[in-house]
Amino acid sequence: MSLFNRRALLTVPLVLAACGFEPVYSPGGAGRTLQNAILVAEPSDRETYLLVRRIEERLGRPNPPQYLLSLNLTTQTQGLEIDPAGNTNRFNLIGTAGYILTDSATGDEVSSGTVNRFTSYSATDSTVATLASERDAVERLMVILADLIVQRLLILDV
Fold first, then answer.
1. How far apart are CA 28 and CA 86, in angstroms?
2. Is residue 101 part of a domain?
3. Higher-confidence position of 23 and 43
4. Where is average pLDDT lowest: 12-16, 34-38, 49-53, 124-128?
5. Is the model's pLDDT at 108 over the cut of 70?
6. Which CATH number belongs to the domain containing residue 95 in this structure?
7. 3-state secondary structure the chain
8. Residue 3: which pLDDT band, with cuts at 50, 70 and 90?
9. Host domain of residue 84
C-alpha cells in the first residue's frame, strides 16, 4: 500500500489559490511588470559586466527604464587546501552583491538588499589551467549572484 495519495495533488491548486499565490510570470505578475523595465548601472570591471549581463538576460533591457538598479560587488579568494609542500590546491571564491532598485521617475528606493554565495575552483600544476578554472568560477559566481538578485526582485509587488 502506498502512502502517497494522487488525489491530494488535485487540491494543491485550490490551496495555493486560497493563500494568494500568483505565478510570477502570469499576466499582471511581478515578472511581467519588471520585464524590460530595469536599467542596470554600467559595469566597471569584468566581474560586474558578467553580473549585469546575466541580470539583463533574465529581465531584458528597458526602453524607456521605469527602474534603476545599482550594484555594489565585492569578491575575495580564500585558500582551502594546502599540501605538505605549502602549495594551495583549492580555493573558494566568495562574492557579495548589494543592490538598490529605485524608481526612475521619483528617485524613491523601491527595494534594496545584499546577496552572497561562493563557488570553488582547483589549482593545478599548469598556470593556464588554473587561470581557466578561476575564470570559470568567476562566471559561475556571477550567474548565481545575478539569479539571486532577480529572484528577490521578482517577489516584489511593484
1. 57
2. yes
3. 43
4. 12-16
5. yes
6. 3.30.160.150
7. CCCCCHHHHHHHHHHHHHCCCCCCCCCCCHHHHHCCCEEECCCCCHHHHHHHHHHHHHHCCCCCCCEEEEEEEEEEEEEEEECCCCCEEEEEEEEEEEEEEEECCCCCEEEEEEEEEEEEEECCCCHHHHHHHHHHHHHHHHHHHHHHHHHHHHCCCC
8. low
9. 10-154
